[in-house]
Specification:
mainly alpha, globular, ABC-2 family transporter protein, transmembrane, transmembrane helix, 0% strand, membrane
Length: 256
């Protein structure tokens, strides 16, 4: 109950940041581009929507661009904005005087970032659906997608990307919670994203957790070792960064 109340408090504070708008804009950014491209080429719309693989095509197009750059960047910015609220307002001392344990405070903020990540995924998938449906509402000669919506493949694919996102989220949360300068965690995150674009096809690229989302589209690439269990690495990094972050937070001497 204490954790729930703390979560509610953090959720209210989150509304005073730009993190909410960043989540919404980031989620619809790629689907909007794909939708605009489809509308500007109306000659192929009817053929695409009548295809038996229309949803798979839209899923692959949207996730290919989202996973490589937009998703990691969105996580970096959102995690930094959420955890920097107290630094910006010089409110850490006030927060730490409330009748809440440091564990509850840590988990409440972390749950906010996880909830916003879930919100991002839901909105992004809504964007994919609208990308397939809206052309049929705009153009009378364009049919609604003929393919039945593949719920199970979509859920399985999203679950993978969500798992791949967790190490990025936990590391950015760690950096933002312990570094007062807002630009340092963002700068580190940007550098990691750039490094991941270079290392994604490297045989040891799995050592960099920022590459995991991109690797999903390169699983059949012979430069990537199929024996490397990305799921295990992703889970391991998430547990490592979260545990390290928690231990650093509850043991640090300065609470200001």
């Amino acid at each position: 109950m204490v954790l729930f109340n703390s979560f509610q408090s953090e959720w209210i504070k989150k509304k005073n940041s730009s993190a909410s708008w960043l989540t919404i804009i980031g989620a619809f950014f790629i689907p909007l581009i794909i939708l605009t491209k489809r509308i500007l080429d109306p000659q192929t719309l009817a053929e695409q929507n009548a295809s038996a693989k229309i949803w798979h095509m839209l899923y692959n197009q949207c996730w290919q661009y989202m996973s490589v750059f937009v998703l990691p960047m969105g996580i970096i910015l959102t995690a930094s904005l959420i955890t920097q609220l107290e630094f910006r307002n010089n409110a850490w001392k006030q927060v730490h005087t409330t009748p809440q344990s440091f564990t509850v405070l840590f988990l409440a903020k972390f749950c906010i970032t996880l909830t916003m990540l879930v919100q991002f995924f839901l909105l992004f998938n809504l964007g994919i659906v609208l990308t397939g449906i809206l052309p049929a509402l705009i153009f009378p000669n364009v049919p609604f997608p003929k393919q039945d919506f593949p719920f199970q493949p979509f859920l399985a694919g999203n679950a993978k990307f969500f798992l791949y996102s967790l190490p990025i989220l936990s590391l950015q949360y760690l950096l933002s919670l312990h570094i007062r300068n807002f630009m340092v965690p963002i700068g580190v995150g940007f550098a990691m994203v750039i490094a991941s674009l270079i290392a994604v096809s490297w045989k040891y690229g799995y050592l960099l957790p920022y590459t995991y989302c991109s690797k999903q589209f390169l699983l059949n690439d012979n430069r990537i070792d199929p024996d490397v269990n990305i799921y295990a690495w992703s889970t391991g990094y998430f547990v490592l960064f979260t545990t390290l972050n928690f231990l650093l937070y509850i043991s640090r001497k300065s609470r200001g």
